[in-house]
Amino acid sequence: MAAAAELGVGLIGAGTVGAEVADRLLTWAPALRRRAGAGLELRRVAVRDLGKTRPRVPPELLTADPHQVIDDPGIDIVVELAGGEEPARSWLERAIRARKHVVTANKVVMAAHGPELLELAGEMDVDVYFEAAVGGGIPLISTFKVDLAANQLERVTAIINGTTNYMLCRMAADGSTFAQVLADAQREGFAEADPTADVDGHDAAAKLAIMASIAFGARVHPRAVYCEGIRAVQPVDFRYARELGYAIKLMASAERTPRGVEARVHPCMVPLSHPLAVVDGVHNAVFIEGDLVGEVLLQGLGAGARPTTSAVIGDLIDLARSIQRQVRNRAPFTFDDIAVVPMDEVTTRAYFRCRVADRPGVLAQIFTVFGEEQVSISSAIQKEVFEGEASAEFVVTTHPAPDAALRRTRQRIAALEPVRAVSSFIRVL
Ligand SMILES: NC(=O)c1ccc[n+]([C@@H]2O[C@H](COP(=O)([O-])OP(=O)(O)OC[C@H]3O[C@@H](n4cnc5c(N)ncnc54)[C@H](OP(=O)(O)O)[C@@H]3O)[C@@H](O)[C@H]2O)c1
Q: CATH classification of 6-137+305-324, choosing from 3.40.50.720, 3.10.129.10, 3.40.190.10, 3.40.30.10?
Protein backbone atom coordinates (compact mmCIF):
# COMPACT_ATOMS: atom_id res chain seq x y z
CA MET A 1 0.00 0.00 0.00
CA ALA A 2 1.35 3.44 -0.93
CA ALA A 3 2.09 5.99 1.79
CA ALA A 4 -0.97 8.15 2.35
CA ALA A 5 -1.63 11.45 4.03
CA GLU A 6 -5.20 10.31 4.78
CA LEU A 7 -6.08 6.80 5.84
CA GLY A 8 -9.69 5.67 5.55
CA VAL A 9 -11.05 3.97 8.67
CA GLY A 10 -14.23 1.89 8.72
CA LEU A 11 -15.93 0.67 11.88
CA ILE A 12 -18.08 -2.42 12.26
CA GLY A 13 -19.98 -1.74 15.48
CA ALA A 14 -20.86 1.53 17.18
CA GLY A 15 -21.98 0.25 20.58
CA THR A 16 -20.26 0.84 23.93
CA VAL A 17 -16.73 0.78 22.47
CA GLY A 18 -17.44 1.67 18.84
CA ALA A 19 -19.27 4.91 19.68
CA GLU A 20 -16.37 6.03 21.89
CA VAL A 21 -13.84 5.15 19.16
CA ALA A 22 -15.88 7.10 16.59
CA ASP A 23 -16.04 10.06 18.95
CA ARG A 24 -12.28 10.07 19.53
CA LEU A 25 -11.53 9.81 15.82
CA LEU A 26 -13.87 12.69 15.05
CA THR A 27 -13.13 15.04 17.95
CA TRP A 28 -9.39 14.42 18.25
CA ALA A 29 -8.53 14.41 14.55
CA PRO A 30 -5.72 17.05 14.60
CA ALA A 31 -3.88 15.46 17.56
CA LEU A 32 -4.27 11.98 16.07
CA ARG A 33 -2.92 13.21 12.73
CA ARG A 34 0.18 14.61 14.47
CA ARG A 35 0.76 11.39 16.40
CA ALA A 36 -0.01 9.00 13.56
CA GLY A 37 1.74 10.96 10.80
CA ALA A 38 -1.44 10.63 8.72
CA GLY A 39 -5.08 11.53 9.07
CA LEU A 40 -7.32 8.76 10.42
CA GLU A 41 -10.56 9.61 8.65
CA LEU A 42 -13.70 7.80 9.74
CA ARG A 43 -15.45 6.98 6.46
CA ARG A 44 -18.09 4.33 7.22
CA VAL A 45 -19.74 2.74 10.28
CA ALA A 46 -21.74 -0.49 10.17
CA VAL A 47 -24.37 -1.18 12.83
CA ARG A 48 -27.20 -3.69 13.15
CA ASP A 49 -30.06 -1.26 13.76
CA LEU A 50 -30.13 1.94 11.68
CA GLY A 51 -33.12 3.17 13.69
CA LYS A 52 -31.16 3.70 16.96
CA THR A 53 -30.26 7.23 18.03
CA ARG A 54 -26.47 7.68 17.82
CA PRO A 55 -25.46 11.20 18.79
CA ARG A 56 -21.74 10.46 18.32
CA VAL A 57 -21.85 9.06 14.78
CA PRO A 58 -22.67 11.25 11.74
CA PRO A 59 -25.77 9.60 10.19
CA GLU A 60 -24.40 9.81 6.63
CA LEU A 61 -21.60 7.35 7.59
CA LEU A 62 -23.98 4.63 8.80
CA THR A 63 -24.78 1.41 6.98
CA ALA A 64 -26.45 -1.79 8.13
CA ASP A 65 -24.17 -3.88 5.90
CA PRO A 66 -20.65 -4.61 7.23
CA HIS A 67 -19.58 -5.63 3.72
CA GLN A 68 -20.03 -2.02 2.65
CA VAL A 69 -17.27 -1.18 5.13
CA ILE A 70 -14.99 -4.05 4.17
CA ASP A 71 -15.39 -3.68 0.41
CA ASP A 72 -15.23 0.15 0.29
CA PRO A 73 -12.05 0.99 -1.69
CA GLY A 74 -11.68 4.20 0.36
CA ILE A 75 -11.20 2.20 3.57
CA ASP A 76 -7.66 1.13 4.44
CA ILE A 77 -8.28 -0.10 7.99
CA VAL A 78 -11.32 -2.09 9.17
CA VAL A 79 -11.98 -1.83 12.92
CA GLU A 80 -14.21 -4.66 14.14
CA LEU A 81 -16.05 -3.75 17.37
CA ALA A 82 -19.18 -5.87 17.04
CA GLY A 83 -18.10 -8.90 19.10
CA GLY A 84 -19.03 -12.61 19.05
CA GLU A 85 -17.40 -15.38 17.02
CA GLU A 86 -19.44 -15.29 13.79
CA PRO A 87 -19.91 -13.37 11.59
CA ALA A 88 -17.06 -11.31 13.11
CA ARG A 89 -14.41 -13.92 12.18
CA SER A 90 -15.68 -14.02 8.58
CA TRP A 91 -15.64 -10.22 8.34
CA LEU A 92 -12.04 -10.14 9.55
CA GLU A 93 -11.03 -12.86 7.11
CA ARG A 94 -12.75 -11.06 4.23
CA ALA A 95 -11.08 -7.76 5.15
CA ILE A 96 -7.64 -9.40 5.31
CA ARG A 97 -8.20 -11.15 1.96
CA ALA A 98 -9.16 -7.73 0.54
CA ARG A 99 -5.74 -6.57 1.80
CA LYS A 100 -7.16 -4.30 4.46
CA HIS A 101 -5.39 -3.91 7.78
CA VAL A 102 -7.64 -4.82 10.69
CA VAL A 103 -7.98 -3.76 14.31
CA THR A 104 -10.26 -5.73 16.62
CA ALA A 105 -11.23 -5.85 20.30
CA ASN A 106 -12.76 -9.30 19.83
CA LYS A 107 -11.29 -11.77 22.34
CA VAL A 108 -13.61 -14.57 21.27
CA VAL A 109 -12.34 -14.49 17.68
CA MET A 110 -8.70 -13.83 18.58
CA ALA A 111 -8.64 -16.63 21.18
CA ALA A 112 -10.15 -19.24 18.87
CA HIS A 113 -8.84 -18.09 15.46
CA GLY A 114 -6.03 -15.61 16.16
CA PRO A 115 -3.10 -17.69 14.84
CA GLU A 116 -4.90 -18.46 11.52
CA LEU A 117 -5.90 -14.83 11.00
CA LEU A 118 -2.38 -13.62 11.80
CA GLU A 119 -0.90 -16.15 9.37
CA LEU A 120 -3.37 -15.15 6.66
CA ALA A 121 -2.52 -11.50 7.28
CA GLY A 122 1.16 -12.42 6.79
CA GLU A 123 0.32 -13.97 3.40
CA MET A 124 -1.77 -10.96 2.40
CA ASP A 125 0.88 -8.51 3.60
CA VAL A 126 -1.40 -6.66 6.02
CA ASP A 127 -1.47 -6.31 9.81
CA VAL A 128 -3.87 -7.47 12.52
CA TYR A 129 -3.93 -5.44 15.74
CA PHE A 130 -5.86 -6.62 18.81
CA GLU A 131 -4.53 -4.84 21.90
CA ALA A 132 -8.08 -4.23 23.14
CA ALA A 133 -8.96 -7.93 23.10
CA VAL A 134 -7.11 -8.56 26.39
CA GLY A 135 -7.00 -6.34 29.44
CA GLY A 136 -8.94 -3.35 28.01
CA GLY A 137 -6.66 -0.33 28.33
CA ILE A 138 -3.65 -2.22 29.77
CA PRO A 139 -0.91 -2.42 27.12
CA LEU A 140 -0.33 -6.17 27.08
CA ILE A 141 -0.02 -7.37 23.50
CA SER A 142 2.44 -4.61 22.58
CA THR A 143 4.38 -5.35 25.78
CA PHE A 144 4.75 -9.02 24.83
CA LYS A 145 5.28 -8.25 21.15
CA VAL A 146 7.82 -5.44 21.42
CA ASP A 147 9.02 -4.42 24.87
CA LEU A 148 9.65 -7.91 26.29
CA ALA A 149 10.66 -9.52 23.00
CA ALA A 150 14.23 -10.02 24.28
CA ASN A 151 13.02 -12.33 27.03
CA GLN A 152 12.28 -15.99 27.39
CA LEU A 153 9.00 -15.48 29.20
CA GLU A 154 8.57 -18.04 31.95
CA ARG A 155 5.19 -17.34 33.49
CA VAL A 156 2.20 -15.00 33.21
CA THR A 157 -0.15 -14.80 36.19
CA ALA A 158 -3.17 -12.55 35.87
CA ILE A 159 -6.40 -11.22 37.25
CA ILE A 160 -8.02 -10.67 33.91
CA ASN A 161 -11.75 -10.55 34.61
CA GLY A 162 -12.97 -7.41 36.36
CA THR A 163 -16.46 -8.73 37.16
CA THR A 164 -15.24 -11.70 39.19
CA ASN A 165 -12.52 -9.66 40.87
CA TYR A 166 -15.14 -7.14 41.96
CA MET A 167 -17.36 -9.96 43.26
CA LEU A 168 -14.57 -11.74 45.16
CA CYS A 169 -13.43 -8.43 46.72
CA ARG A 170 -16.98 -7.79 47.90
CA MET A 171 -17.31 -11.30 49.35
CA ALA A 172 -13.99 -10.86 51.16
CA ALA A 173 -14.93 -7.42 52.51
CA ASP A 174 -18.44 -7.99 53.82
CA GLY A 175 -19.02 -11.74 53.95
CA SER A 176 -21.74 -11.68 51.26
CA THR A 177 -22.58 -14.87 49.40
CA PHE A 178 -21.91 -15.45 45.70
CA ALA A 179 -25.65 -14.97 44.92
CA GLN A 180 -25.83 -11.67 46.84
CA VAL A 181 -22.77 -10.11 45.18
CA LEU A 182 -23.84 -11.32 41.75
CA ALA A 183 -27.22 -9.60 42.16
CA ASP A 184 -25.48 -6.39 43.32
CA ALA A 185 -22.94 -6.52 40.48
CA GLN A 186 -25.76 -6.92 37.95
CA ARG A 187 -27.66 -3.99 39.47
CA GLU A 188 -24.53 -1.80 39.44
CA GLY A 189 -23.69 -2.71 35.83
CA PHE A 190 -20.51 -4.68 36.63
CA ALA A 191 -22.02 -8.02 35.58
CA GLU A 192 -24.06 -9.02 32.52
CA ALA A 193 -27.64 -10.30 32.78
CA ASP A 194 -26.16 -13.65 31.70
CA PRO A 195 -23.03 -13.78 33.86
CA THR A 196 -21.86 -17.23 32.71
CA ALA A 197 -18.86 -16.10 30.64
CA ASP A 198 -17.49 -14.16 33.60
CA VAL A 199 -18.35 -16.25 36.67
CA ASP A 200 -17.57 -19.61 35.05
CA GLY A 201 -14.15 -18.40 33.90
CA HIS A 202 -14.67 -18.60 30.11
CA ASP A 203 -13.90 -14.90 29.52
CA ALA A 204 -10.65 -15.23 31.48
CA ALA A 205 -9.78 -18.47 29.63
CA ALA A 206 -10.20 -16.75 26.24
CA LYS A 207 -7.96 -13.88 27.31
CA LEU A 208 -5.40 -16.28 28.79
CA ALA A 209 -5.34 -18.27 25.54
CA ILE A 210 -4.47 -15.06 23.65
CA MET A 211 -1.82 -14.00 26.18
CA ALA A 212 -0.21 -17.45 26.36
CA SER A 213 -0.15 -17.73 22.55
CA ILE A 214 1.63 -14.39 22.19
CA ALA A 215 3.87 -14.70 25.26
CA PHE A 216 5.11 -18.21 24.48
CA GLY A 217 4.70 -18.28 20.69
CA ALA A 218 2.48 -21.35 21.07
CA ARG A 219 -0.97 -22.12 19.69
CA VAL A 220 -3.08 -22.24 22.84
CA HIS A 221 -6.77 -22.73 22.05
CA PRO A 222 -9.24 -21.60 24.75
CA ARG A 223 -10.62 -25.16 24.86
CA ALA A 224 -7.18 -26.33 26.03
CA VAL A 225 -7.23 -23.94 29.01
CA TYR A 226 -8.37 -25.64 32.22
CA CYS A 227 -11.30 -23.55 33.44
CA GLU A 228 -13.13 -23.40 36.77
CA GLY A 229 -15.23 -20.43 37.89
CA ILE A 230 -16.04 -18.86 41.23
CA ARG A 231 -19.54 -20.21 41.97
CA ALA A 232 -18.32 -22.66 44.63
CA VAL A 233 -16.32 -20.14 46.71
CA GLN A 234 -18.09 -19.50 50.02
CA PRO A 235 -17.88 -16.56 52.46
CA VAL A 236 -16.22 -18.66 55.19
CA ASP A 237 -13.33 -19.47 52.83
CA PHE A 238 -12.32 -15.78 52.82
CA ARG A 239 -12.15 -15.81 56.63
CA TYR A 240 -9.97 -18.92 56.70
CA ALA A 241 -7.86 -17.64 53.79
CA ARG A 242 -7.13 -14.43 55.69
CA GLU A 243 -6.17 -16.37 58.82
CA LEU A 244 -3.80 -18.48 56.72
CA GLY A 245 -2.32 -15.35 55.03
CA TYR A 246 -4.07 -15.49 51.65
CA ALA A 247 -6.54 -13.60 49.46
CA ILE A 248 -8.84 -15.51 47.08
CA LYS A 249 -8.69 -14.45 43.43
CA LEU A 250 -9.82 -15.89 40.08
CA MET A 251 -6.36 -16.50 38.70
CA ALA A 252 -5.46 -17.01 35.06
CA SER A 253 -1.99 -18.42 34.78
CA ALA A 254 0.21 -19.74 32.02
CA GLU A 255 3.66 -21.19 32.35
CA ARG A 256 6.24 -22.54 29.98
CA THR A 257 7.54 -25.88 31.25
CA PRO A 258 9.79 -28.52 29.67
CA ARG A 259 6.62 -30.60 28.99
CA GLY A 260 4.74 -27.77 27.29
CA VAL A 261 2.56 -24.82 28.23
CA GLU A 262 0.42 -24.97 31.36
CA ALA A 263 -2.68 -22.78 31.08
CA ARG A 264 -5.40 -22.64 33.71
CA VAL A 265 -8.12 -20.45 35.18
CA HIS A 266 -9.49 -21.20 38.65
CA PRO A 267 -10.06 -19.63 42.05
CA CYS A 268 -6.77 -19.44 43.86
CA MET A 269 -5.43 -18.59 47.31
CA VAL A 270 -2.80 -15.92 46.71
CA PRO A 271 -0.30 -15.07 49.47
CA LEU A 272 -1.07 -11.61 50.86
CA SER A 273 2.53 -10.61 50.09
CA HIS A 274 1.99 -11.22 46.33
CA PRO A 275 1.26 -8.07 44.24
CA LEU A 276 -1.89 -9.68 42.77
CA ALA A 277 -3.41 -10.20 46.25
CA VAL A 278 -4.17 -6.48 46.59
CA VAL A 279 -5.65 -5.88 43.13
CA ASP A 280 -9.02 -4.41 43.96
CA GLY A 281 -12.48 -4.12 42.41
CA VAL A 282 -12.86 -4.18 38.63
CA HIS A 283 -9.14 -3.72 38.04
CA ASN A 284 -7.11 -6.21 36.05
CA ALA A 285 -3.43 -6.94 36.63
CA VAL A 286 -0.90 -9.09 34.86
CA PHE A 287 2.29 -10.29 36.52
CA ILE A 288 4.92 -11.31 33.97
CA GLU A 289 8.15 -13.16 34.69
CA GLY A 290 10.91 -13.12 32.07
CA ASP A 291 14.49 -14.37 32.17
CA LEU A 292 16.09 -10.96 31.55
CA VAL A 293 13.56 -8.48 32.88
CA GLY A 294 12.62 -10.35 36.06
CA GLU A 295 9.15 -9.43 37.31
CA VAL A 296 6.86 -6.89 35.64
CA LEU A 297 3.40 -5.91 36.91
CA LEU A 298 0.88 -4.19 34.63
CA GLN A 299 -2.36 -2.99 36.19
CA GLY A 300 -5.37 -0.96 35.06
CA LEU A 301 -8.95 -0.99 33.89
CA GLY A 302 -9.60 -4.14 31.91
CA ALA A 303 -12.88 -2.98 30.37
CA GLY A 304 -15.07 0.04 29.77
CA ALA A 305 -15.58 2.23 26.72
CA ARG A 306 -12.74 4.68 27.40
CA PRO A 307 -9.91 2.26 28.40
CA THR A 308 -10.83 -0.02 25.49
CA THR A 309 -10.86 2.95 23.13
CA SER A 310 -7.39 3.86 24.38
CA ALA A 311 -6.17 0.46 23.15
CA VAL A 312 -8.06 0.60 19.82
CA ILE A 313 -6.84 4.09 18.93
CA GLY A 314 -3.31 3.20 20.07
CA ASP A 315 -3.40 0.31 17.58
CA LEU A 316 -4.65 2.64 14.84
CA ILE A 317 -1.82 5.10 15.48
CA ASP A 318 0.83 2.36 15.44
CA LEU A 319 -0.65 0.92 12.29
CA ALA A 320 -0.77 4.34 10.60
CA ARG A 321 2.90 4.91 11.41
CA SER A 322 3.80 1.54 9.86
CA ILE A 323 1.75 2.30 6.77
CA GLN A 324 3.49 5.67 6.46
CA ARG A 325 6.89 4.00 6.55
CA GLN A 326 5.64 1.33 4.17
CA VAL A 327 6.56 -1.44 6.57
CA ARG A 328 4.29 -4.10 7.93
CA ASN A 329 4.33 -6.62 10.67
CA ARG A 330 6.60 -4.53 12.83
CA ALA A 331 6.80 -7.55 15.10
CA PRO A 332 5.90 -10.76 13.28
CA PHE A 333 4.05 -13.40 15.29
CA THR A 334 5.29 -16.96 15.12
CA PHE A 335 3.49 -19.91 16.64
CA ASP A 336 5.06 -23.28 17.37
CA ASP A 337 3.04 -26.42 18.02
CA ILE A 338 3.89 -26.63 21.72
CA ALA A 339 1.75 -29.08 23.71
CA VAL A 340 -0.62 -27.82 26.39
CA VAL A 341 -0.04 -29.86 29.57
CA PRO A 342 -3.25 -31.56 30.82
CA MET A 343 -4.43 -30.20 34.18
CA ASP A 344 -4.06 -33.68 35.74
CA GLU A 345 -0.30 -33.38 35.29
CA VAL A 346 0.04 -29.80 36.53
CA THR A 347 1.65 -29.53 39.95
CA THR A 348 -0.38 -27.39 42.34
CA ARG A 349 -1.10 -26.93 46.01
CA ALA A 350 -4.61 -27.04 47.46
CA TYR A 351 -6.79 -25.96 50.36
CA PHE A 352 -9.52 -28.40 51.47
CA ARG A 353 -12.34 -27.49 53.82
CA CYS A 354 -14.26 -30.52 55.13
CA ARG A 355 -17.14 -31.05 57.55
CA VAL A 356 -16.46 -34.25 59.52
CA ALA A 357 -18.12 -36.19 62.36
CA ASP A 358 -16.67 -34.97 65.65
CA ARG A 359 -15.37 -38.28 66.99
CA PRO A 360 -12.00 -39.95 67.56
CA GLY A 361 -10.15 -41.56 64.64
CA VAL A 362 -11.68 -39.46 61.86
CA LEU A 363 -8.59 -37.40 61.17
CA ALA A 364 -6.45 -40.52 61.01
CA GLN A 365 -8.73 -41.87 58.25
CA ILE A 366 -8.41 -38.60 56.31
CA PHE A 367 -4.64 -38.46 56.70
CA THR A 368 -4.38 -42.05 55.46
CA VAL A 369 -6.00 -40.98 52.16
CA PHE A 370 -3.55 -38.08 51.80
CA GLY A 371 -0.68 -40.50 52.48
CA GLU A 372 -1.91 -43.09 49.97
CA GLU A 373 -2.23 -40.41 47.28
CA GLN A 374 1.26 -39.15 48.17
CA VAL A 375 -0.08 -35.68 48.90
CA SER A 376 1.82 -34.19 51.80
CA ILE A 377 0.06 -31.86 54.19
CA SER A 378 1.41 -28.37 54.84
CA SER A 379 -1.07 -27.39 57.58
CA ALA A 380 -4.15 -28.96 59.18
CA ILE A 381 -6.43 -27.06 61.54
CA GLN A 382 -9.73 -27.94 63.15
CA LYS A 383 -11.64 -24.68 62.75
CA GLU A 384 -15.13 -24.96 64.23
CA VAL A 385 -17.24 -27.45 66.12
CA PHE A 386 -20.97 -27.59 65.42
CA GLU A 387 -22.35 -28.93 68.72
CA GLY A 388 -25.90 -29.81 67.66
CA GLU A 389 -24.68 -31.86 64.70
CA ALA A 390 -21.66 -33.34 66.54
CA SER A 391 -19.50 -32.30 63.59
CA ALA A 392 -16.42 -30.17 63.10
CA GLU A 393 -14.91 -28.14 60.28
CA PHE A 394 -11.43 -29.09 59.30
CA VAL A 395 -9.06 -27.17 56.99
CA VAL A 396 -6.02 -28.66 55.27
CA THR A 397 -3.48 -27.05 52.96
CA THR A 398 -1.09 -29.24 51.02
CA HIS A 399 2.38 -29.13 49.58
CA PRO A 400 2.70 -29.29 45.76
CA ALA A 401 1.31 -32.44 44.15
CA PRO A 402 -0.09 -33.43 40.73
CA ASP A 403 -3.56 -31.92 40.34
CA ALA A 404 -5.00 -35.37 39.55
CA ALA A 405 -3.78 -36.66 42.94
CA LEU A 406 -5.29 -33.65 44.71
CA ARG A 407 -8.67 -34.15 43.04
CA ARG A 408 -8.61 -37.92 43.69
CA THR A 409 -7.84 -37.15 47.34
CA ARG A 410 -10.84 -34.83 47.45
CA GLN A 411 -13.14 -37.52 46.00
CA ARG A 412 -11.86 -40.25 48.29
CA ILE A 413 -12.17 -38.05 51.38
CA ALA A 414 -15.73 -37.06 50.42
CA ALA A 415 -16.61 -40.77 50.20
CA LEU A 416 -15.38 -41.59 53.76
CA GLU A 417 -18.24 -42.48 56.12
CA PRO A 418 -17.48 -39.83 58.80
CA VAL A 419 -17.02 -37.03 56.24
CA ARG A 420 -20.22 -34.99 55.78
CA ALA A 421 -18.82 -32.92 52.87
CA VAL A 422 -15.66 -31.56 51.30
CA SER A 423 -17.17 -28.07 51.21
CA SER A 424 -14.30 -26.29 49.42
CA PHE A 425 -11.32 -27.21 47.29
CA ILE A 426 -9.25 -24.22 46.19
CA ARG A 427 -5.77 -24.25 44.66
CA VAL A 428 -3.02 -22.31 46.40
CA LEU A 429 -0.52 -20.18 44.43
N1 LIG B 1 -17.47 -3.08 26.45
C2 LIG B 1 -16.24 -3.24 26.93
O3 LIG B 1 -15.88 -2.75 28.02
C4 LIG B 1 -15.21 -4.03 26.17
C5 LIG B 1 -13.92 -4.18 26.67
C6 LIG B 1 -12.96 -4.89 25.95
C7 LIG B 1 -13.32 -5.47 24.74
N8 LIG B 1 -14.61 -5.34 24.29
C9 LIG B 1 -14.94 -5.98 23.02
O10 LIG B 1 -15.32 -4.98 22.09
C11 LIG B 1 -16.30 -5.50 21.20
C12 LIG B 1 -17.52 -4.59 21.24
O13 LIG B 1 -18.06 -4.58 22.55
P14 LIG B 1 -19.21 -3.55 22.97
O15 LIG B 1 -19.32 -3.65 24.45
O16 LIG B 1 -18.98 -2.24 22.34
O17 LIG B 1 -20.49 -4.24 22.29
P18 LIG B 1 -21.94 -3.60 22.05
O19 LIG B 1 -22.16 -2.42 22.91
O20 LIG B 1 -22.91 -4.72 22.10
O21 LIG B 1 -21.86 -3.06 20.52
C22 LIG B 1 -21.84 -3.93 19.42
C23 LIG B 1 -22.00 -3.11 18.17
O24 LIG B 1 -21.91 -3.97 17.05
C25 LIG B 1 -23.05 -3.79 16.20
N26 LIG B 1 -23.36 -5.07 15.57
C27 LIG B 1 -23.57 -6.26 16.18
N28 LIG B 1 -23.87 -7.20 15.26
C29 LIG B 1 -23.84 -6.59 14.07
C30 LIG B 1 -24.10 -7.01 12.72
N31 LIG B 1 -24.42 -8.28 12.45
N32 LIG B 1 -23.98 -6.12 11.73
C33 LIG B 1 -23.65 -4.83 11.99
N34 LIG B 1 -23.41 -4.36 13.24
C35 LIG B 1 -23.51 -5.24 14.25
C36 LIG B 1 -24.14 -3.32 17.13
O37 LIG B 1 -25.13 -2.64 16.38
P38 LIG B 1 -26.39 -1.95 17.10
O39 LIG B 1 -25.82 -0.73 17.80
O40 LIG B 1 -27.30 -1.58 15.98
O41 LIG B 1 -26.94 -2.96 18.05
C42 LIG B 1 -23.37 -2.41 18.07
O43 LIG B 1 -23.23 -1.14 17.50
C44 LIG B 1 -16.56 -6.93 21.66
O45 LIG B 1 -15.73 -7.81 20.94
C46 LIG B 1 -16.13 -6.92 23.12
O47 LIG B 1 -15.73 -8.18 23.62
C48 LIG B 1 -15.54 -4.65 24.97
A: 3.40.50.720
